[in-house]
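Bug #77: duplicate submission created two jobs. Keeping one. Sequence:
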Amino acid sequence: MAGEGVGTPRVAVIGGGLTGLVAADRLLAAGLPVTVFEKYPEAGGLVGVCEVGGAPLERFYHHLFTSDVDYVDLARDLGLDGEILWLSSRMGFFTAGRLWDFGTPASLLRFAPLGVAGRLQFVLSTLRLRGERDWRRLEGETAAGWMRRNGFGKAYETVWGPLLAQKYGARAEEIGLVWLWGKIALRSRSRSASGLGERLGYMRGSFGRGIAALLARVRSRGGDVRTARPVRLVAREGGGLRVETAGGAEAFEKVLSTVALPELLRIAPGLPEELRGRWARVAYAHALCPLLELDRRLTPYYWLNVGDASLPFGGVIEQTNLLPPDWYGGRHVVYLSNYVLPDDPRWRMRDEELWRLYLPALARVRPGFDESWVLARRIFRGEYAQPVVGARYSELLPGLRTEVPGLYTACMAQIYPEDRGQNYAVRLGRQAADALLADAGRGGGPA
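Kept job's structure:
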């Protein structure tokens, strides 16, 4: 069985993001020695922070849904659950050249782009998907194929199709129905009982506090966290693996990789060819995340979906419509959501080239927008940020235990049927640690 060992195995965790730190913390609590290798100068991954108006802010937008019980449980364990604020949010949709309220029954009635027939299709398709309890029954379908085949074409072409095109580009038609099912189920669970909106969670002082508390506890438990340490992974004869860095090589009985599959394939060139071929079939989109600091509000919405393929981004997330600008020195904070496939020219563009696309497009979203409103601007990049989840994705899904003895993998491609997010990073980190502990004869990990 992969991962069998005797005694107390030394464990290497590759990747110091949330999944890696949660797993390391759990392994250390069970008495295993753990070394965490992170290639960047700071741990935290996509939950890393920058500073706006003297306050910490995530480089990539984050919030919690009321169903995110795994993250809330971790926050409670770290003594931070009382720091999570549950706030009402407002959603909009940009299409047909203007902004529309979106996300509540009342707003749907006023959403003219759907028309009467489209509104009925949207409601019926949402109810059908929300009522399905077993995602496996949906796995053979694409979202586009199911919507059109069941007479929901207007709802797809007006709402879901444009959003999928913005996120997955040329691969939008391949996206599985399970992905859409997950989105609808998740949002419906965060709606208020009155149906007048949803409540979202945000941690006072940023989610970076969770990372900092977790990192401190990993170190207090004896964990060795090494940042700015890119690695190469090599299997050893006789079992175990060798982790090579610029500082030398070390042997570990067990290695947990929490990096994206393409990154793992790059750092572990000696993996079996059959395994490499299977993992290489899991495709990803990269994330471009522009961050603007403005001197005034841009839109009335926290989350604005962009259903217009002629715009270069798929969403406008206005942080200061969820939290007050006073948190950020009076500045209004706006993220743009822009996922691109690896061959998209935008991924290789310099920041200034990208701003020449983004800023004029903002003037279409907010007529009268002027660059003089911009106090500061940055663009953050996240490689392999979003798996491309097609039909029958479970057939590609790697298990936590790999065929290589002692090697485990836990990354965002493996949280299916859920979509990416902090909650599932926590859940996956715990599951990976428990699998490793079970194989080491240590039971299922701490309660």
